[in-house]
Amino acid sequence: MTLQIRNLSIAYGQTQVISQINLTLHPSRTTGLIGRSGCGKSTLAKAMTGIIQAPQDTLFLNDEHFLPNPAQTGNTVHYMWQDPMASLSPFLNALDLISEPLKAIHKMPKKARQQRAHELLNMVELDPTCAAKRPHQLSGGQCQRIALARALAVKPQFLVLDEPLSALDLVTQEQVTSLLRKVRTEMHMGILIISHDLQTLAKLADDIAVMDGGRIVEHKKTQEFFAAPKFPVSQRFVEISKYSHMEHSN
Amino acid sequence: MAYVDTTSSLLISRGTKLIKGRTSFLLGGFFLSVFIVLAIGGEALAPNSPNQIDLLHRLSAPSLTYPLGTDHLGRCILSRLMVGTSLSLGTALATAGLILAIALPVGLLAALCKGWVDAVLMRVADIFLAFPMLVFALAIIGYLGASLTSAVVGVALAWWPSLARLVRTLTLDAASKQYVLASRQCGLKPLTIIRRHILPQILPPLLVVLSLEMAGLLLVLSSLSFLGLGAQPPAAEWGAMLNEARPFFAERPSVVLAPGLVITLAVLSFNLVGEGIRNQLDKRKPYQW
Ligand SMILES: Nc1ncnc2c1ncn2[C@@H]1O[C@H](COP(=O)(O)OP(=O)(O)OP(=O)(O)O)[C@@H](O)[C@H]1O
Ligand SMILES: [Mg+2]
């Protein structure tokens, strides 16, 4: 099962934001997407998950035409929003937020749902006291982890994470990173992770794609990428993250 | 000593804090609770039976037996006003409920289905809105026959379009929130999304508007009863009492003034409470849901 993007272009009105993107996601594999702010990463992620409509003949699931639609294909390709606070309902507490997909998609009975929700909270390193709190009573990083826990509760075939670690401290980042590594293999998910931070991608991604000006300019295996970044943007990103280059040789 | 708050000054400062900026709300709330008590226990509290005719004392001045005097049939005005509370406020509430029952689904459907559903529903609402409200209500009452039920139905049918438009606007805004989209991705069914994520957003402002509309409803319903198109005699209803008393205004003004004053007071208290709730909501800080 693969999710394939072929020649995808998106324009907001007259301005072309992404053009001729080709990208393939595989199960149990993580692709990193890096690029400067405003280059169109979120737009690509939203288009491939149906949050904004992609033109026909651009998305393929197992070589078959695929038109994502949030209401129906949320458990096939799932988008975790860049702004976690805004993507969590202010009327529900953390536990209910995580329980929602368990009930709606997986039809779990109440007991099992609660237990699983607590497990997920624990998996994303959240304190049990957060369970009864609503988003505005939580910190940005806590909200981010609740959004991640909810995305994992959905258990989609392909998960698109838009800056899932941006609000976390380095220690928590480390823990969530290892969680995501575990998830990839245990849940057989194909993951696309968007980040500004090359170090994070180095630890997580099997391959790295670099976006610039709405195009994917470079897409390589992670090690090859760090060994020989070809384009100026890629070189800059690698250069800047060199301070901790030791860790990249994994 | 000067630094120490005495208990009484503490109580006073607490009191002023509570009242500050809420005087109108508290005043309205006080009157409204009096009306609610009367609506529930009017019959038991009334000094006389509301329909007891005493032809020897018709149009009498206030006295100990008849604190507000009597009407043209010698019925105790105070008792009729007290007993009439439940009918008068009840019909206004029922009308508001009926309006909400029409406007809420129509507005939600229009906003969430978009496309031709939206276009059709809103054109229908426009057609209803194009008629002057009272004329429209009168037409429906003319068709159904004069009774309190047809007054309620007529007013509700004339009144729903403006509220439906408001529901539609509020829903459009509510449904475009990121967390609503996010919950669609989590597989929630449309009805669940409406119940869990849209209604909690739109109901508070709607209830404020409706509480303000209650005043208008009370007036329209009383006017209809006054015109003889709503509650029918001998029912003790404020508007109908006004209507019945009309010919005797010159003889004893209080027969007309008493129900008029009560209607004014009820309208005022609904307005004050509605304004108060709105002020409270306007004061909330961002992120303090
Ligand atoms: N709804 C929209 N209407 C018009 N233009 C938009 C819209 N959303 C995004 N854009 C523009 O499209 C471009 C790409 O935006 P996008 O959100 O995809 O960037 P990004 O790569 O995710 O940036 P960041 O790293 O800051 O999140 C930006 O220049 C932005 O101004
Ligand atoms: Mg973005």
Automatic annotation (TrEMBL), chain A:
<dbReference type="InterPro" id="IPR027417">
    <property type="entry name" value="P-loop_NTPase"/>
</dbReference>
<comment type="similarity">
    <text>Belongs to the ABC transporter superfamily.</text>
</comment>
<keyword id="KW-0813">Transport</keyword>
<dbReference type="InterPro" id="IPR003593">
    <property type="entry name" value="AAA+_ATPase"/>
</dbReference>
<keyword id="KW-0547">Nucleotide-binding</keyword>
<keyword id="KW-0067">ATP-binding</keyword>
<dbReference type="InterPro" id="IPR050319">
    <property type="entry name" value="ABC_transp_ATP-bind"/>
</dbReference>
<dbReference type="Pfam" id="PF00005">
    <property type="entry name" value="ABC_tran"/>
</dbReference>
<protein>
    <recommendedName>
        <fullName>ABC transporter domain-containing protein</fullName>
    </recommendedName>
</protein>
<dbReference type="InterPro" id="IPR003439">
    <property type="entry name" value="ABC_transporter-like_ATP-bd"/>
</dbReference>
<dbReference type="InterPro" id="IPR017871">
    <property type="entry name" value="ABC_transporter-like_CS"/>
</dbReference>
<feature type="domain" description="ABC transporter">
    <location>
        <begin position="3"/>
        <end position="238"/>
    </location>
</feature>
Automatic annotation (TrEMBL), chain B:
<feature type="domain" description="ABC transmembrane type-1">
    <location>
        <begin position="85"/>
        <end position="274"/>
    </location>
</feature>
<feature type="transmembrane region" description="Helical">
    <location>
        <begin position="256"/>
        <end position="274"/>
    </location>
</feature>
<feature type="transmembrane region" description="Helical">
    <location>
        <begin position="150"/>
        <end position="167"/>
    </location>
</feature>
<feature type="transmembrane region" description="Helical">
    <location>
        <begin position="24"/>
        <end position="46"/>
    </location>
</feature>
<keyword id="KW-0472">Membrane</keyword>
<keyword id="KW-0813">Transport</keyword>
<feature type="transmembrane region" description="Helical">
    <location>
        <begin position="206"/>
        <end position="229"/>
    </location>
</feature>
<keyword id="KW-1003">Cell membrane</keyword>
<dbReference type="Pfam" id="PF00528">
    <property type="entry name" value="BPD_transp_1"/>
</dbReference>
<keyword id="KW-0812">Transmembrane</keyword>
<keyword id="KW-1133">Transmembrane helix</keyword>
<keyword id="KW-0653">Protein transport</keyword>
<protein>
    <submittedName>
        <fullName>Nickel ABC transporter permease subunit NikC</fullName>
    </submittedName>
</protein>
<dbReference type="InterPro" id="IPR035906">
    <property type="entry name" value="MetI-like_sf"/>
</dbReference>
<dbReference type="InterPro" id="IPR000515">
    <property type="entry name" value="MetI-like"/>
</dbReference>
<keyword id="KW-0571">Peptide transport</keyword>
<comment type="similarity">
    <text>Belongs to the binding-protein-dependent transport system permease family.</text>
</comment>
<feature type="transmembrane region" description="Helical">
    <location>
        <begin position="124"/>
        <end position="144"/>
    </location>
</feature>
<feature type="transmembrane region" description="Helical">
    <location>
        <begin position="89"/>
        <end position="112"/>
    </location>
</feature>
<dbReference type="InterPro" id="IPR050366">
    <property type="entry name" value="BP-dependent_transpt_permease"/>
</dbReference>
